[in-house]
Amino acid sequence: MRSEELKAVLEIESASFSRPWTEQHFQYEIDSPFGHPMVALADDGTLAGYLCLKIVLDEAEILDVAVAASHRGKGVGRLLVQWALDFSRERGASLLFLEVRAGNVEAIGLYRSFGFRESGRRKNYYDNGEDAILMEIPVCLQSEEDHAV
User: Fold this and answer.
1) Are 98 and 61 in contact (CB under 8 A)?
2) Cα distance between residue 116 and residue 54, in whole Å
3) Whether the predicted pLDDT of 146 surpasses 50
4) CA distance 53 to 61
5) What is the distance between the terminal CA atoms of the chain, rounded to a whole angstrom?
């Protein structure tokens, strides 16, 4: 993600969330040595979605992810989550965390398809009273001995 892409990112963000991040939030992630924001571009070059990943020591966290309405159901979210898993693994993270609205059944299904498991719940976390589900997945590389039969 680059600063010049923020206008398109903010359009997707505001269409996706009731309390969207501001331009300053995204700029902070772009500038942070721990932030790894990534965009996905459609074939026509338009911004299809984005994911903000933070890695501190051996822990990674997906802070924000959204896909433009016109690109949902086309694998963009799956591509971004796969990137986050691969990038976290390459950077030596042992776990990847995220938080998702309990009512976001599509996202929860996507995360479970990767092997994310529920690790906790924040009751009434969102302003509408909805719970936040905390999910995690181990991402560390296994040694070749671990693959031996």
Assistant:
1) yes
2) 17
3) no
4) 6
5) 42
The torsion angles phi and psi of 84, rounded to 5 degrees, stand at -60, -40
pLDDT tens by residue, 18-72: 889 999 999 999 999 999 999 999 999 999 999 999 999 999 999 999 999 999 9
The DSSP string of 14-31 is HHH-SSPPPHHHHHHHHH
**pLDDT value of residue 145:** 42
Residue for token pair 């799956």: 78
Q: Please, are residues 39 and 28 in contact by the beta-carbon 8 Å criterion?
A: no
Set 29, 50, 61, 111: catalytic member: 111
| Alpha carbon distance 90, 7 (integer Å) | 30
Give me the domains of the chain, ranges plus CATH numbers. 3-147 (3.40.630.30)
β-pairing verdict for 95-101 and 132-138: antiparallel
Which of the residues 59, 99, 118, 130 is marked catalytic? 99
Residue 141 pLDDT level (bands cut at 50, 70, 90)? low
Tell me whether residue 145 is one of the annotated catalytic residues.
no
Query: Does the active-site annotation cover 29?
Result: no
